[in-house]
């Protein structure tokens, strides 16, 4: 009998996979085990009342919510009624480009942050081991400058953007190398590039500024024979070919219907794997059993060709107002058509 690791490798490589892959964290079955580097712990890195930061950020003394710093030096805030736990950056670590020359990256690439994972990796060696990379350069750079500034920076401060990109890429390549040395099967990262109907920036600008870092980081993973798994929200149709070209093997999309399932299958079919739940925007929240089952059926039909499909749970059903009953319908249909483990 194949181990979960062997199944997922066959799925991604389109190598006569005996079934589709599964990552049902709420459905009590997953083929995966996630490896996470150690993050620093301190009071300022945890959610605090605004008074905790009053000396450093007096402008937010009356903020109606909670705040914390991250290891980059960004100040985050979330409103008091926010139950998601996410929040958004209030003050970026690079509020001025004058700070760039003396800025020091967090040491996420320090081997000591990975030492605790050796035992975890050995205990879960039968599962597909994915190393969590917190993002690629854009994900961090836009926070350090704040999105509204960074999108302008891409045109007005291109030289500084590229300098920061290279610093970021150096550090992230070290993170990937540490996972490779642990024997991880893949790296997984989140970087949202789309809105509802287009890319956040022009495809040409993406290729100029960001494709080089994607290429370098995917090559770092390939050096250790690791697959590359990417999450993105939104419409990224214009750069799907580019992403596969640089080495993205798996697309984790929560809104696969946004680009049209047929269009998506036409581009990535038999080349890259779709790793997704039934669409969390247009399908799952409807609570319509027939619609949910039809879309699960369509996904298996379009993407499962000796591999090519991993079905998953969404990570936060409460926030998108999806019942466990709806998620159960999805899971059962995937099990029925994709074969149970």
Q: Output the radius of gyration.
A: 21 Å
Q: What is the typical, i.e. mean, pLDDT? A: 97
Q: Biggest sheet, strands in spatial order?
A: 2-1-12-11-10-9-8-7-3
What is the CATH T-level topology of the largest domain?
TIM Barrel
Instruction: Tell me the β content.
Output: 5-15%
Tally of extended strands? 12
The coarse overall form would be globular
Q: Tell me, what is the CATH class of the largest domain?
A: Alpha Beta
Query: Total helix count?
Result: 11
Specify the biggest β-sheet: 9 strands, mixed
CATH architecture of the largest domain: Alpha-Beta Barrel
How many domains make up the 3D coordinates? 2
Which residue ranges are poorly predicted, with pLDDT under 50 across at least 5 consecutive positions?
A: none
Helix fraction, binned, reads: 25-40%
N/C terminus separation:
10 Å
What is the N-to-C order of secondary-structure elements (H for helix, E for strand)?
HEEEEEEHEHHHEHHEHEHEHEH
Structure classification: alpha/beta
């Amino acid at each position: 009998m194949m181990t979960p690791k062997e199944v997922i490798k066959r799925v991604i490589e389109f190598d006569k996979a005996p079934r589709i892959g599964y990552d049902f964290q709420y459905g009590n079955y997953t083929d995966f085990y996630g490896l996470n580097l150690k993050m620093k712990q301190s009071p300022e890195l945890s959610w605090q009342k605004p008074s905790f930061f009053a000396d450093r950020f007096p402008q937010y003394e009356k903020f109606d919510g909670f705040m914390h710093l991250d290891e980059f030096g960004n100040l985050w805030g979330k409103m008091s009624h926010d139950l998601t736990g996410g929040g958004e950056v209030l003050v970026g670590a690079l509020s001025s480009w004058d700070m760039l020359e003396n800025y020091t990256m967090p040491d996420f690439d320090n081997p000591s942050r990975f030492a605790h994972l050796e035992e975890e990796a050995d205990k879960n060696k039968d599962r597909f081991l994915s190393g969590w990379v917190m993002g690629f350069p854009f994900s961090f750079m836009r926070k350090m400058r704040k999105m509204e500034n960074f999108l302008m920076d891409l045109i007005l401060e291109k030289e500084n953007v590229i300098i920061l990109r290279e610093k970021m890429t150096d550090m992230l390549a070290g993170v990937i190398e540490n996972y490779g040395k642990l024997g991880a099967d893949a790296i997984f990262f989140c970087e949202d590039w789309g809105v509802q109907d287009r890319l956040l920036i022009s495809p040409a600008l993406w290729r100029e500024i960001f494709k080089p870092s994607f290429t370098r980081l995917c090559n770092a993973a390939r050096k250790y024979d690791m697959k590359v798994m990417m999450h993105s929200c939104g419409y990224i149709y214009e750069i799907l070919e580019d992403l596969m070209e640089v080495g993205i093997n798996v697309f984790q999309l929560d809104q696969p219907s946004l680009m049209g399932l047929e269009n998506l299958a036409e581009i990535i079919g038999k080349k890259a794997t779709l790793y997704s739940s039934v669409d969390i925007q247009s399908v799952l929240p409807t609570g319509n059993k027939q619609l949910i089952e039809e879309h699960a059926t369509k996904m298996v039909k379009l993407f499962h060709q000796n591999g090519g499909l991993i079905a998953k749970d969404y990570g936060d059903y409460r926030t998108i107002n999806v019942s466990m009953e709806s998620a159960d319908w999805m899971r059962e249909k995937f099990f029925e058509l994709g074969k149970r483990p």
